[in-house]
Amino acid sequence: LKNKNRWVKFSTMSGGKEEGHKFEIGITAEHFLAIKKAFEGALQEGSQTISTDSVEGAISSMLGISLSEPMFDLILNRTEACNTVDFSKFIQICTEILLQYTQWGSLIKRPAGLAGFESYPKQVERKLVKDGINFNIMVVGQSGLGKSTFINTLFHSVVSARDTQIPSSTPSTPTQSIRSVVHVLEEGGMRVQLTVTDTPGFGDKINNQGCWEPVCAYIDEQHSAYLDSELNIQRPSRIKDTRVHACVYFIEPTGHRLSELDKIAMQQIQKRANIIPVIAKADSLQPKELQLFQNRLRNDMASAEIRPFPQHRSTHSVEEAKEGQTLLDEQPYGVVGQNYFDQKSAKRYRKTRCGVIEIDNPEQCDFVRLQHMLLRLRMYDLKESTQEVHYENYRRENLKPANSGEGSELDEQELQNPMDHFTFEETHAHEFIPQTNASREKQHHQEEKPNQQQQNQSLPQEGGRRKSSLDAMPRNSRSSILNTSSQSQITNSSTV
Prior knowledge:
It contains 17 helices and 14 strands. The protein is α/β, with parallel strands linked by helices. Helix 11 (about 365-375) packs across helix 12 (about 380-400).
């Protein structure tokens, strides 16, 4: 009963007589227990049936609403030929009411014949195979933790931003900007447009205060670009999606505790993207040391309110919640990158001076568990969570009216001095932020209108409000609208 639907068989009736059209309805365990509880509440001591007069009150208490006239008529038609109602009859009455007159639960009606809509999943599959999908993944961590090797091992190909960048004549520095590279992969007829974003040099300086801001700024820029395309009057049928679907955060295998830099960075990133913590170069720790380190990291993340993916949502069922909790218990994953492939056995290994580690062996490495969760099990959920949780939060904050104070955590003093509550140096905030076309146009626009820039200095730079549609209109149209509104106000005042 807990894992399957309970199917209730009954026939349609008209005037107290059965008709020839029979069907079945499936109710879940939650529905069945609620119906059972309502029936037991109407039972009298030593009786297995309830009176017909008690059926209305039992159903009304179960739904938590007063019954309408159509519901009363249906109950009278089903109970006019009997004085008492047993539990099976009560289930049939409840399911028919719920099916016809309420939106309570998800009732399943099984047609008597084949209608044909069972092929809808195949139609969606053909569409996906034809068009393909996109998946955007970001790796964040200090240099030398094997981020590029991990990405190449994850997708069985050279797709990392470091290994696929175009060589230049100037020597490359450890990190100057966030780099992204796009690949098209095909597996079993399914095409995926993969975007890999690397953050080289993250946390490599002596003073790492504010080093997470370029990462957060990049994620916000992708949300902003998608929102701008969505708000256009003439927008494409398929909006280009560059939003980060998964952020794999690499933790240094120190064997101690979670560093303050990792805590603050993960706290800021989880507000914008799905974060998945991993322990880099797990082969540098003994199995017992790795297990103790994972337990310490779980406690530190719980105390810091760091919520890795997947998180429970109200739309998840009981089974999905249990499965998600099982995946959370496995995190953070201890991963090892591949540096050797055996042609004879077709296995991937990590060769070191101390020995050999089989990458695809779950007893030696958590890489298989991470790959299974990331690509085979939760790839769609990552995209869905990005759309319905993180993007909706960004959209709600940026489309909020300017005069609305709800949800704002800044007081009046902070609004007057927006940069006073930041303790980091301003040079760090601009050192790693990538200069995209949108940011260049915004800078050029601000240089053309210095007066407008001075007026906007009193507003907070983070979480600012979007311009109204009136500001974006031409001056002639704007003046005509203002004149029309002023004339209408004069007319209304004269009428009064």
